[in-house]
Amino acid sequence: MAKQSTEQPSKSSYWRKLFDQNPRLVRIRSNETLREQWEKDHPGQKFDQSWSQSLSNVKSTYRHKHKKGGRPKAVADGQTAGPSPAEIRAAALERLEGAVDHCLWTARQLDAAGLDRAIKHLHAARNEIVWKSVRK
Question: What is the reported pTM?
Answer without folding.
Answer: 0.46
